[in-house]
Amino acid sequence: MGALSRLRLSPEGFSFEQMVSLTEFLRKRGCLHFTLSFHSSTLLAGFTPYSATPSDVDVVLGKIRSYLHYFAHEVGGRFATPTQIFEVESRRRRENAP
Q1: DSSP characters over 27-57
Q2: What whole-number distance in Å separates Cα of residue 80 and Cα of residue 41?
Q3: The pTM is what?
Q4: In the chain, where are the structural domains located?
Q5: What are the backbone dihedrals phi and psi of residue 17, each rounded to the nearest 5 degrees, phi first?
Q6: Using CA atoms, how far apart are residues 83 and 95, in angstroms rounded to an integer?
Q7: How far apart are CA 43 and CA 51, in angstroms?
Q8: What is the pLDDT along the chain (98 residues), one digit of tens a residue?
Q9: Which of the 8 DSSP states describes residue 91?
Q10: Where does residue 5 rank: exposed (0-12), middle (13-18), buried (19+ CB within 10 A)?
Q11: Is 18 helix (H, G, I), strand (E, B) or coil?
């Protein structure tokens, strides 16, 4: 995976473009589920290195908004809780069982 091997779907230290590149890389390899993650404390100025100032928080929120828009409108992705994903995958496995 090369340069993408150190990427995460996170606005903490990663650009919107990097998150999109990682998503496309994983989609081409059949990945069905994606997790955008960040520390909740990053949404408050001064609590993490990613959001030292209020303008840093705005940058993080902008990356989150941009990624969610991209995922919903360009990828056609849907949002779900871990429980919902578990239920869908459990049903899919039961239906595909021999």
Answers
A1: HHTT---------GGGGSTTSSGGGSSHHHH
A2: 22
A3: 0.86
A4: 8-95
A5: -60, -40
A6: 18
A7: 7
A8: 555 568 899 999 999 999 999 999 999 999 999 999 999 999 999 999 999 999 999 999 999 999 999 999 999 999 999 999 999 999 999 999 88
A9: H
A10: exposed
A11: helix
